[in-house]
Amino acid sequence: MTTSDNRRTQHSGSVPEPFEVQIDQRDGALRLLVSGELDVNAVGELQDAISEAEQSRARAIVVDLSDLRFLDSTGLSVLLGAYTRSRQNGHRVSFVPSDHDAVRKLIALTGTSEMFE
Fold first, then answer.
1. Please, which residues bridge with residue 29 across strands?
2. Percentage of the chain with pLDDT > 70?
3. Distances in Å between the alpha carbon of 10 and those of 3, 14, 16, 106?
4. Biggest CA-to-CA distance, the chain
5. What torsion do the CA atoms of 58, 64, 68, 74 make, to the nearest 10 degrees?
6. Domains in the chain with CATH codes
7. What is the distance between the alpha carbons of residues 25 and 70, in angstroms, rounded to a whole number?
């Protein structure tokens, strides 16, 4: 366990949950169901999933963070990049906010809650 993992585990009081992205496609819309802990070790997987979704013919892309339990600055950076590209390319990407306090607090502290409006 690395030092940063140890701090996070001690802070959250539980074993870190593995990061996962599931893809659900219906009626021309693509939904990325994100769960677990999004940190520096997992951002590549999310970036790849978002990039593939952006290159698809889906008319809408929903990044559902409702099951995301932890978010660090590198994960937030990936989400902000997708948000910015979406605003420049027709507002195709939208976000469902996390139901978990650790993620909500980071979003509030960084002033990025406009992503979820």
1. 26, 60
2. 87
3. 11, 7, 10, 18
4. 44
5. 50
6. 16-116 (3.30.750.24)
7. 25
Q: Give the pLDDT score at 6.
A: 38
Contacts of 87 (CB under 8 A, 6+ apart): none
Rounded distance between C-alpha atoms, residue 16 and residue 95, angstroms? 23
Strand, helix or coil at 56?
A: coil
Rounded to two decimals, the pTM is 0.84
Task: Take residue 29 and report the two structure tokens written for it.
Answer: 């819309």
Using CA atoms, how far apart are residues 83 and 108, in angstroms rounded to an integer? 16
Question: Which residue type sits at 7?
Answer: R
**What gap in Å lies between CA 59 and CA 30, rounded to an integer?**
8
Q: What is the pLDDT of residues 30-64, one digit of tens each?
A: 999 999 999 999 999 999 999 999 999 999 999 99
Query: Residue 102 gets which letter from DSSP?
Result: H
Residue with tokens 């990044």: 63
